[in-house]
Every structure is written in C-alpha cells, then in structure tokens.
Amino acid sequence: MRAVLLGCPGAGKGTQSKILSARLGVTHIASGDLFRSEIDKKSPLGLKVQDYVKKGMLVPDSVVIELISSKLDACKEGWILDGFPRTHDQAEALDKWLEQNGQKIDAVVFIKMGEDEVVKRLTSRWTCGGCGAVYNLLTKPPQAEGKCDACAAALIQRSDDSEATVRRRLMVFNDLTAPLISYYKHAHDYFEVEGSQPMDAVTATLEGILAAKKA
Ligand code: AP5
Ligand code: MG
C-alpha cells in the first residue's frame, strides 16, 4: 500500500497516518516529525531547518526531497506519506522516484477541514515529549493534566502551534500545497474525506478507501 494524505495543518494527517500505518503494517513517513526529531537532536539538518519550522514556513524543496527520498528508498514494501509532498516540485520529485522504482501511488486522500476549526484544534494540541503521543484538550484530553497516558512523560506544545503561526501555516498551505489537489485529481486515484468528523469516523472512511484499493 502506498498512500499520500494531503490536508492543511491540523486536518488530522498525523493522527490518521499513525492508526492506518499500524493496521496496514506499512511505514508512516511524516516529514514534520522527521524535522522535529532532527531539531531536538541539534543535528546539522535540524540546525538548517529549525527557523523554517518554528516560523511555519516551508523548508526548501531540495532539503525535503533528499530526506524523503532516502526514507522511501529504505521502505519499498509500502508507506503512508504525511506532510509530503507539499509543493509542485516535491510532487514531481515523488513521481520521478516512483517511476525510477517501478512503483505507483494507490491512493491520494485529501482530508478537508475549515480554517477556524483548525486554529482551535492546533492551539489545543499537546504532544508527549517522551513517546510522541498526540492529545487535544478539546477532543482527546489526557487522563491526568499535562501527563501522557501511555508513558507519563510531560506534555509539550509545538513551537509552531501559536495562533499567529498556525494562521501563517494556513496561508502557506493555501498558496503552495492546495494546488496539489488539482495535480493529483488528474494524475492519480484521488479521494476526499471530511476531517471535521469524529476521529473514528475519519479512520473508518479512510480504511474503506484503502481496503478497496488493496482488494
Ligand atoms: P507538519 O508537522 O507536517 O505539520 P502540518 O502539516 O502543519 O500539520 P500538523 O502536524 O499540524 O497537523 P496534522 O494534520 O498532522 O494533525 P494532527 O493529526 O496532529 O509540518 C511542520 C513544519 O515542518 C512545516 O510548517 C514546515 O516548516 C516543515 N515541513 C514539513 N513537511 C514539509 C515539506 N514537505 N516541505 C517543506 N517543509 C515541510 O491533529 C491535530 C490535532 O487535532 C491533534 O490534537 C489531534 O488530537 C486532533 N484531531 C485530529 N483529528 C481529529 C478529529 N477527527 N476530531 C477531533 N480532533 C482531532
Ligand atoms: Mg502532523
């Protein structure tokens, strides 16, 4: 299974990719998670990208494409892409990689969400600093305030989840990533899912789409 989840910040790409990749036994490749991990490690790549990520701007295409290509090379059995591609050049680079490797995308799914709802969601998101589990004070609160249910580590907020930065990320999405919808509508198996439904309902719809492609 090779699937791409498209969607604005906060649409639920990460939440759904984690569930689906575990159920389908494929790798979840999340460009934002990879960058945050490099930033935490203070690696050369982390130092190169940290200002872009913090400000809600896109990391240059050449850097993203090099990183994701190496991940794709390492998991030929299948993947769910979350947060990549995000520009026309990234989509073309992915197509080139697929062609060179004799593979194709089974499904591109756009998770649709309204902007005001996304701002509420992201300013209420907390992430476990230990295991990376994602919570939401409005829709998925932890059992004990500020602590992860799974590993009890402290919950932290992403540096790009302030309202001003979320609004900038939404502008960047509208300018550079939303045009990929028409790119994929014409070139690949394309689906849309309403992201404002409860999490389980979004998962069920996505599973239905992917199961039909697998059959
Ligand atoms: P990235 O990490 O990809 O962030 P994003 O696209 O802005 O998306 P988010 O991770 O904020 O949202 P999500 O859709 O994953 O939502 P989630 O499931 O967490 O990128 C960060 C930065 O890295 C970029 O700004 C850029 O700098 C850089 N970058 C990354 N990729 C790049 C690329 N390809 N090119 C260039 N730069 C790149 O859900 C959000 C919240 O809502 C959670 O609290 C969750 O619990 C809750 N929730 C989820 N679903 C539901 C539901 N159905 N109902 C109620 N609550 C829900
Ligand atoms: Mg995410």
List the helices and strands and how they pair.
Blueprint: E1 2-7, H1 13-24, E2 27-30, H2 31-41, H3 44-55, H4 61-74, E3 79-82, H5 88-100, E4 107-112, H6 115-123, E5 125-128, E6 134-136, E7 155-156, H7 163-177, H8 180-187, E8 190-194, H9 199-214
Number of spatially distinct domains: 1
Distance between the termini: 11 Å
CATH topology: Rossmann fold
The largest beta-sheet arranges its strands as 2-3-1-4-8
- Unreliable runs: none
Mean pLDDT across residues: 95
- Associated small molecules: BIS(adenosine)-5'-pentaphosphate, magnesium ion
Number of H/I helices: 9
What's the helix-strand series?
Answer: EHEHHHEHEHEEEHHEH
Q: Write the CATH homologous superfamily.
A: P-loop containing nucleotide triphosphate hydrolases
Give the structural class: alpha/beta
CATH class: Alpha Beta
Which geometry do the CA atoms define? Answer: globular
Number of strands: 8
Tell me about the biggest sheet?
A: 5 strands, parallel
Query: What share of the residues does DSSP label as strand, in percent?
Result: 15-25%
How much helicity do the residues have? Answer: 40-55%
- Going by CATH, the architecture would be 3-Layer(aba) Sandwich
Rg, Cα atoms, Å: 17 Å
